[in-house]
Design goal:
Blueprint lengths: L7 H9 L7 H6 L8 H15 L5 H13 L6 H13 L1
């Protein structure tokens, strides 16, 4: 039995013709692009404005605290009853 030598030149030629990766310049030219609708832009600006407003109105709380401490804050029992009824019917 005779074993013939491997033809290395033929093998390397075959593998060198395999597809090459795309050039880096081609990949750099392509880029992603996002366009937002006018409604989306309006919503984003409204959301930003809402997030800037504090959840607790410190000025209102300070005013009510001062009125309570000075004894100047009086709520009628009728107003309290109305609010209780409103909360029950919701």
């Amino acid at each position: 039995m005779k074993i013939s030598p491997i033809n290395m030149a033929g093998i390397t030629n075959r593998y060198s013709t395999v597809r090459k990766a795309p050039a880096v310049a081609e990949a750099a030219q392509r880029s992603d692009k996002v366009d937002f609708s006018e409604n989306g832009k309006t919503f984003a600006s409204a959301l930003k404005a809402v997030r800037q407003v504090p959840e607790v109105r410190e000025d209102k709380i300070a005013e009510l605290k001062g009125r309570i401490e000075s004894g100047d804050y009086n709520v009628s029992s009728e107003d309290i009853a109305k609010k209780i009824m409103q909360s029950l019917t919701m």
